[in-house]
Specification:
Blueprint: H1 7-11, H2 15-43, H3 50-79, H4 85-117, H5 128-201, H6 205-225, E1 230-232, H7 233-251, E2 255-261, E3 269-271, H8 275-286, E4 294-303, E5 306-313, H9 323-328, H10 332-344, E6 349-354, E7 360-367, H11 371-378
Parallel strand pairs: 2-4
Antiparallel strand pairs: 1-3, 4-5, 5-7, 6-7
Length: 379
């Protein structure tokens, strides 16, 4: 899976794209203003003014566009300086005066240069002493609108960045909690298996030796799969069969295991080490006293968009225990419940119930996804 991209990078379009969009916006404004002024001239029976309107409105609009970097720079300085309303207003007015003076000067210079080139002769912009204060009224409104829109954009981007940062933090926290649950389960599984081998050691040394060899292979598979929280069902079943082989050496003829797995589901993803705690729970709490044998069944099927895993036994069942008491007896079931909630949220189901014919049945329902789909999503 590729490394996650930072929130700032995701929210910030390229500089070239931003300025290209702004240029198109100001071009559209120029076209609209030129059309408005020229149609106003025609309505007053003043034809032949199109080129003049192109010069005046074009230089007026594009002069503002050229000043935008300075406007944005100084707006960032005084908008977020936390100086109070009075100083904010005074700073804004000072910036507006500077903007208007620069805008008016740019319009005067560009029209002086472009008018002869466009065949209009020398351009008369009037007495500049009056022109500067006259343009200031329009520029104050335009400058305030630009700064207001820029402030809104910055606030929106900051809010989005904060939301992404919170989401990333929550994701990292969930991953840390999930990793902690997985790490809790592995030593729990190892200690219980070692206890099983220890109980056989003094009764049958050869069987204990074979169990140690199988445990070594089981640990190798578990460590190989520990790099991810989900593994293909085929790998999980390989771990499950090794574990049950170990248990059958302990219980011998008292344990019978059957599988009902559709081979089509081999590539479907399941949480790593999800079946072993269920089987351990059946053996620990479901085994009948005496010489009665226990039958355990492991089944997997697909139903619509879900993968359903079932572990059933014909043991003593749950009796009158409620769900809270069942999940409270030991680490395995509560760990599975929490892992499923972290991985799939409301997209999963986990239930433990008595079977009508005797014994207990655990049912897991998780979203159906394959290892191929996961790889495509990651890339």
């Amino acid at each position: 899976m590729p490394a996650p991209q930072s929130s700032a990078w995701l929210l910030r379009p390229s500089r070239m794209l931003t300025w290209s969009l702004l240029f198109l916006v100001y071009t559209a404004i120029a076209v609209l203003l030129i059309g408005y002024r020229y149609l106003d001239d025609l309505s007053r029976l003043r034809p032949g003014t199109f080129v003049m309107r192109v010069l005046e409105e074009g230089t007026g609009v594009y002069s503002v566009f050229l000043l935008l970097p300075l406007v944005f720079h100084f707006a960032r300085i005084y908008l977020f300086a936390h100086k109070g309303w009075v100083r904010l207003v005074l700073s804004h007015l000072a910036a507006a005066v500077a903007f208007s003076a620069a805008h008016t000067t740019l319009m005067a210079l560009s029209r002086h240069v472009l008018a002869p080139i466009m065949g209009l002769g020398p351009y008369d912009y009037g007495i500049m002493t009056y022109r500067y204060p006259m343009e200031f009224s329009n520029d104050l409104v335009g400058f305030t609108s630009i700064v207001g829109l820029y402030f809104f954009f910055l606030r929106l981007r900051m809010a989005q960045a904060q939301q992404l940062a919170v989401a990333e933090l929550q994701t990292k926290l969930a991953e840390a909690q999930l990793e902690n649950l997985r790490l809790q389960l592995q030593p729990h599984f190892l200690f219980n298996t070692l206890n099983t081998i220890s109980s056989v050691m003094y009764e049958d040394v050869r069987a204990a030796d074979a169990m140690i060899a199988q445990l070594s292979e089981l640990l190798r598979l578990t460590l190989r799969a520990s790099r991810t929280h989900e593994i293909p069902l085929a790998e999980e079943l390989q771990i499950t069969r090794l574990y049950l082989d170990l248990m059958q050496k302990r219980f011998e003829n008292k344990l019978h295991v059957s599988y009902s797995i559709d081979p089509v589901l081999d590539n479907s993803l399941v949480p790593q080490l999800i079946l072993q705690p269920l089987l351990e729970n059946s053996l620990r709490h479901g085994m009948k006293p005496g010489s009665a044998a226990m039958d355990i069944s492991v089944a997997a099927s697909r139903e619509n968009g879900s993968l359903i895993l079932k572990v059933s036994d014909n043991g003593v069942g749950l009796g009158a225990l409620n769900s809270a008491a069942v999940f409270g007896r030991g680490l395995g079931l509560s760990n599975i419940r929490d892992r499923l909630a972290q991985l799939y949220g409301s997209g999963q189901e986990f239930s433990v119930a008595n079977r009508p014919e005797g014994g207990a049945e655990v049912t897991l329902r998780v979203p159906y996804r394959t290892s191929l789909q996961s790889a495509q999503f990651s890339t």
